[in-house]
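Need Guanylate cyclase domain-containing protein's 3D structure for a figure. Predict it.
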Amino acid sequence: MTGEALHHWIVVLDLETFSTRSDPLQLSLRAAMYDVVRTAFGDAGVNAENVVMEDRGDGILMLVPSTVSPVRLAGPLLRALDDGLRAKAAIYGDAHSLRMRVALHQGLAVQDPHGWSGDAVNTAFRLVDAQPLRDVLKAATLARLAFVVSEQVYEGVVRHGHRGLDPAAYLPLQFRTKHGETIHGWVTVPGYSAPPGLPSGDGSPQRPCTAPGAPGTTPAGTGAAPAEPAGSAAGTSAAGAQPGRVTTFSVGTVLGDVVGGDKHVHGGPIS
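Structure prediction for Guanylate cyclase domain-containing protein:
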């Protein structure tokens, strides 16, 4: 019997390079994935017992009740997922580490005897599978996850800058589906001031912007340096700045407050 269509916050996650791992390692990674997810919901103050989780092999479809604040999902839950992934990597090392893409959308979903479906569910999967999002995670070599929200979630939630959300850390993402539909979203990478790897206006990948003399820079003409996450060893906080020292950097048009003291800013142009 088919149930009634109900509104949910729809979270989908997918593990990077899962199919390239051996069968025993896949089993281990899946166990670690569920441990990270359930712990993250608890740390974010969301009762995991109220979240529908539908297994997808290398990922999970999660339907969160509409009574849960989306600010909690885009803020505390995202940070808890990132913390959990980093903790697993510290324990098991890179060979066992998890890296994932996570998408957040909203809309109606309906349950039948075989699972959940609906256009909103389809859109969430298209977002998490989008090639631009895959490119971002690949370029963010020091990150553990890349997070994309739909246009609706960005406009209704993220852009308002609720406590714990930083709209300036998101960049727009768009792609065409196999059916020719254009889907828009916004992507961020925890630890990075801006997500690397998105195409620039001319279609080429954005060059990360690294402070002159900072670790990871390359001499002129040798290509772009790897992007460093905000807060990495390459970054300099205001508290740790040397007296009289000025750090220069170059970015495009910035939405939001970037500078509060001496800082290194990494990532592509922000527009």
